[in-house]
């Protein structure tokens, strides 16, 4: 491990943090049109950081929605090329009332940075930039070739980067991708993620009467759009959470026995998971499967939100005309997003209640990914990670989705190292999202170390 | 029929309308705290109108929420006393985008007044005031004794007036109540309503995880509050709309054969009801029952609105921690609201999905009412109504709820004449609520005529 890089990080701790906090103060919420200017500001901030770190050809590339950032440094002939990916956009912070400090006014408490995007993904994406800065400062050059492609639409489906990657394989030519948007299996355990679930995200709209009706005068004879949507969606799963959408399990494979065995060997307390992370009355889901199996290797259907009728304070006695739900399905390897959408559409058509017209709109989608743990870059990464944290690296899957990994595989023909430094309780997409300050510094060092080692061909 | 009153109404048409329009311009939405001042302004407007009409002892009576208005005129010894009731509060106007003209800027189109509250109940309540004005102008006195009690909380459950009636039976002593908050069975058909459904209005809250969770990392193992609420509520009815809440039909009587026969003799086109009023793909509800039976004589459960999770534009992949639904049940005669609430609470407790904690909060409730059509006041009202419109009066029920009628029966021991002049397509609680201008004038005349005839003992 390069002591010089470690020393650089130690000497610059305050400034490295201050710069990240400045980025976290920009409310770059990609899904909300009123934050379009903030998203652009965050892009400019990241581009300037790349220039300051010594990257070249830094470009802000306009898209249909939020810009991409490209940069490269290609002065290491004969050395491999790593393509770093991250995203500078964040999820909306609501419900705001549950935040202990405002989501865009980062606060350090108990060694954590609290802010929307602290971990997902500003804090992690920024480690790549700072690893470059450290290597340039220490060596005056980089130990391998690097490209960056950073997007501002990850939280809204990533349509622009998907198009860009498909259209520009030469510009992004590399040997391996590097993404830091995942978590350590547990604090202190070096972890590489070798599998991600896919996702299809949809809106389901139900329409009943032509207008909201008085529930006294029409109740008992007129269809109710909210109730119709409730009736429909309730049929998607049985009481255990097993999906009832016809054909949905056709392409679902069980994980290999070796992988299942390795999952079983991981430290895992169902009770801690329930009490510290989930905080519900009990865990649910398909019977006969471990929690890790459920979240890593099984497809799911979730309703993320529902709206319709009168939801203000007090009482209003209407039969609502319309209702909408946000519905997604997580996919596992071999499930084809388009086929899943088609199965869902057919299921909705077949199960829509009497008197209710339904419509399904697809917002985004991407397949699940698996990475071969024997790839040279993965082996180097596993060793560097183990060196930094002083114990062996574990290989896990994640239940989340990082669509870019599928795009890199399909259009660039490269695997991706998923080397993340988050913690399982970082509260991504939740109030009080946090990122462990120490992990930010550890990440910068580990990534610089990985660049050095992979560049040297070890 | 008093030609003098008719002439007075004809001569004052413009002013009678202008005054109603001024009242309709006040956005007295009782359920929204930000409109509290408007509700008070509407109360003051109505109180002043009562004074101007010649009513005495006009009082604005403060309550825990919105004021009551009391007035009397008791100078007809030996004559009966009528207690006039109405409400000056209105439903929220949302969804605003469906209104052709703003809800609180009344517009006359095609002989109708379009405004929130035009029919329910400002336009109808105001007819009582104007009938008094006409009689005073023409005769210099009233033909019987009158009391008014007008509330500002009808659309939010009427808690204050219920308390007031229970506590002040002497102050409200009368022979009969008069309420104009119902509709003609069809345009031109004089109609008295002799039955109303009751109502219990509740909020059901579901809680899953302690905070919103990332649906990728936890999906498949963590309970989802929105989905849990969906699963629960879907179990309340079968696919036909028959209620599945245990014990709910125990106290439900079938209407008498004579009443059913009379309903069958009413002009009714299921197709017109569907196409002109409901506007859905089809009508629904319990099989083997006519539409009038369903809406007049059967209990129902409706979900008026549901909210939870992320419902903004675009995508957010959370497993929501909380969800809430507004749920009401309409009741028929003999169903006890408290017993129904208890059955519902037990049903919720028994059917809450795994991992979901549920809570039921009751917002308001009142029993169903039936009125004896042979009461002298009802007979006089039926004759006056028939005289004004030139055909015989029909006796119907309404699926709606007017809790005050039950309070009058229970605490004052009096029946209530439900003499309303709305039309079935007036769009109560909906966008583009309207009131037929002609019915406003007809109502003033018919009510004045009823006061004259009932005062003379005919």
Give an overview in words.
- 2 copies of one chain form a homodimer.
- With 458 residues, chain A is of the alpha+beta class.
- Chain A has 2 domains: 3-196 and 368-455, Aminopeptidase, CATH 3.40.630; 199-253 and 295-366, 2-Layer Sandwich (Alpha-Beta Plaits).
- Chain A has 14 helices and 18 strands.
- In chain A, strands 1-2-6-3-7-17 form a 6-stranded mixed β-sheet, sandwiched between helices.
- In chain A, strand 4 and strand 5 (112-114) form a beta hairpin.
- In chain A, helix 1 packs antiparallel against helix 14 (437-455) and helix 2 runs antiparallel to helix 4 (122-139).
- At the A-B interface, strand 10, helix 6, helix 7, helix 9 and helix 10 of A face strand 9, strand 10, helix 6, helix 7 and helix 9 of B.
- Strand 11 of chain A pairs antiparallel with strand 11 (300-309) of chain B, so a sheet runs across the interface.
Keywords:
homodimer; 458 residues; alpha+beta; Alpha-Beta Plaits; 4-stranded antiparallel sheet; 36% helix; globular
What is the gist of this entry?
Chain A is α+β, with helices and mostly antiparallel strands and 458 residues long. Chain A has 14 helices and 18 strands. In chain A, 60% of the residues are buried.
List the helices and strands and how they pair.
The structure is a homodimer of 458-residue chains.
Chain A lengths: L2 H9 L1 H12 L11 H18 L2 E6 L6 E6 L7 E7 L19 E3 L2 E3 L7 H18 L5 E7 L7 H9 L8 E4 L11 E6 L1 E10 L5 E2 H4 L6 H10 L22 H9 L4 H9 L12 H7 L2 E10 L8 E2 L2 E10 L5 H15 L5 E10 L2 E2 L5 H14 L4 E5 L4 H10 L3 E3 L15 E3 H19 L3
């Amino acid at each position: 491990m390069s002591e010089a890089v470690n020393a650089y990080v130690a000497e610059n701790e305050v400034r490295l943090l201050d710069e990240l906090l400045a980025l976290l103060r920009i409310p770059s919420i990609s899904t909300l049109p009123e934050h379009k200017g903030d998203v652009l500001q965050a892009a400019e901030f990241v581009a300037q950081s790349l220039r300051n770190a010594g990257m070249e050809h830094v470009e802000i590339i306009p898209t249909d929605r939020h810009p991409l950032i490209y940069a490269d440094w290609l002065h290491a002939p004969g050395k491999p090329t790593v393509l770093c990916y991250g995203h500078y956009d964040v999820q909306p912070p609501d419900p705001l009332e549950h935040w202990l400090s405002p989501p865009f006014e980062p606060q350090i408490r108990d060694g954590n940075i609290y802010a929307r995007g602290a971990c997902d993904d500003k804090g992690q994406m920024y480690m790549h930039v700072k690893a470059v800065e450290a290597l340039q400062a220490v060596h005056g050059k980089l130990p391998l070739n690097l490209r960056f492609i950073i997007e501002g639409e990850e939280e809204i489906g990533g349509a622009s980067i998907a198009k860009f990657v498909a259209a520009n394989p030469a510009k992004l030519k590399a040997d391996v991708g590097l993404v830091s948007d995942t978590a350590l299996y547990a604090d202190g355990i070096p972890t590489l993620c070798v599998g991600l679930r896919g996702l299809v995200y949809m809106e389901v709209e139900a329409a009943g009467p032509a207008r909201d009706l008085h529930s006294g005068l029409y109740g008992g004879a007129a269809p109710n759009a909210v109730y119709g949507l409730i009736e429909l969606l309730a049929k998607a799963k049985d009481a255990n959470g097993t999906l009832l959408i016809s054909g949905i399990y056709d392409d679902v494979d069980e994980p290999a026995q070796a992988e299942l065995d390795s999952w079983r060997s991981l430290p895992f307390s169902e009770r801690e998971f329930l009490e510290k992370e989930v905080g519900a009355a009990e865990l649910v889901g398909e019977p006969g499967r471990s929690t890790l199996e459920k979240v890593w290797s099984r497809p799911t259907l979730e309703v993320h939100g529902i709206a319709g009728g009168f939801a203000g304070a007090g009482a209003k006695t209407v039969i609502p005309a319309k209702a909408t739900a946000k519905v997604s399905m997580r996919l596992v390897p071999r499930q084809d997003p388009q086929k899943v959408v088609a199965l869902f559409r057919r299921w909705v058509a077949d199960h829509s209640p009497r008197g209710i017209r339904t419509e399904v709109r697809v917002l985004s989608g991407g397949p699940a990914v698996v990475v071969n743990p024997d790839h040279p870059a993965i082996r180097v990464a596993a060793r560097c990670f183990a060196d930094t944290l002083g114990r062996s690296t574990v290989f896990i899957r994640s239940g989340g989705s990082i669509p870019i990994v599928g795009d890199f595989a399909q259009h660039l023909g490269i695997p991706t190292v998923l080397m993340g430094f988050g913690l399982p309780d970082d509260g991504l997409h939740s109030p009080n999202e946090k990122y462990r300050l120490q992990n930010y510094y550890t990440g910068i060092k580990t990534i610089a170390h990985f660049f050095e080692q992979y560049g040297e061909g070890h």
